[in-house]
């Protein structure tokens, strides 16, 4: 008697998630990935008190960076990035970032 066992390929993983160029109304998000042919990436930005509608961005699979703008000053945000390969989402990366204080008079 023989059994046929199926072992799925290892799911590609995202590497690191970085935030830079933080201003009073936005920031840049970049991520690194291991090998993998990603269809796209999903970047979601949610304010910590959930008082605003979350932003959801779809980024082409060959890009690794997104500029986020139009946020509230002096507010904490959670950023989530996941990759999409063959219609399936990878495990997401998470980070938190706070926008700066607006100096407008």
Structure, described:
- By secondary structure, the protein is mostly beta strands.
- Helix content is 0%, strand content 48%.
- The chain has strands spanning 14-20, 27-33, 40-47, 55-60, 65-68, 76-85, 88-89, 93-98.
- Strands 3, 4, 6, 7 and 8 form a 5-stranded antiparallel beta sheet that branches. The protein has a 3-stranded antiparallel beta sheet with strand order 1-2-5, with no helix packed on it.
- The mean pLDDT is 87.
List keywords for this structure.
8 strands, 48% strand, elongated, mainly beta, 5-stranded antiparallel β-sheet
Order of helices and strands: EEEEEEEE
List segments where confidence is low: pLDDT < 50 over at least 5 consecutive residues. none
Largest sheet: 5 strands, antiparallel
> Radius of gyration in whole Å, from Cα?
17 Å
Q: Looking at the chains present, what oligomeric state does this protein adopt? A: single chain
- Report the count of strand segments: 8
Question: Helical proportion?
Answer: under 10%
Amino-to-carboxy terminus distance: 80 Å
Strand percentage: over 45%
Shape: elongated
Mean pLDDT: 87
| Total of helices | 0
Structural class: mainly beta
In short:
It contains no helices and 8 strands.
Please outline the helices and strands.
Layout: E1 14-20, E2 27-33, E3 40-47, E4 55-60, E5 65-68, E6 76-85, E7 88-89, E8 93-98
Antiparallel strand pairs: 1-2, 2-5, 3-4, 3-6, 6-7, 6-8
